[in-house]
Write a structure and sequence with these properties.
With 255 residues, this protein is α+β, with helices and mostly antiparallel strands. Helices cover 21% and strands 33% of the residues.
Amino acid sequence: MRKSGFSLAVTAVLLTAACGSSGNGPSSLPSTGSSPITSPSPTALTPNGVGKKAPKAMLAAAMKALSGSSSVRFKANVVDQKQRITMDLQVTRTGTKGTVSMPFKGKRGTMQLIVLGKESYVQGTGQFWQNAIGAEKGPAAGKLAGQMFGGHWVKMPTSSGMAQGMPASPADVAKMFTSTTGPLKKGKPKTVDGRPAIGLISSDGTMYIATTGDPVPLLVAPAKAAQKQQATFSDYDVPVPITAPAGALDLTKLK
């Protein structure tokens, strides 16, 4: 996984996933299956002093807090070569589930994903599979994949296919933001979803770190508003049950 600072190393992760579909059949991401859950009320949290630290220490504290959480909802919206890629993932210490939307040679596709250790499960519509596989293997292969996998969960190794490179724990999410481009400097205070935060600026963008409770990251905003890409972190330490879907097609057993 490439580390590229605040301006979203998720681009590398998503592109790895998109390219990973080739040669491994279809893949997709499952819906979370749970209603939105909010984080604890900011009024119940006490100041953590992260804003008094030096910039590098602020980043270290934020990544330690993120890595130490039992779960986090990670949403990202990035643009690579004028192609928009989005993800909405619930990431826990035992697995990940959520949705990812990305282009396949100009044709968008949305998949659902479950990652459980060495095994992953993906699901998409017939059109999704047709676009994803067709972009790599040609129209005939795409049409066949759509007929075979559309609407089904497909089991495959995490080390290959579309789950490759996806964060499988909060610590994996933290690794995506550990390195930065250029020097760091302290930014201005900002309220993010009702929670006070302090900015940490790099040449890539600004990370807003909670100044009450655990010093977890809440938002990564681009250096320029026109870039229209960001990452958000919410629902920390919320219980998220993740189980393997029943009746999944095992890709490794399909000829």
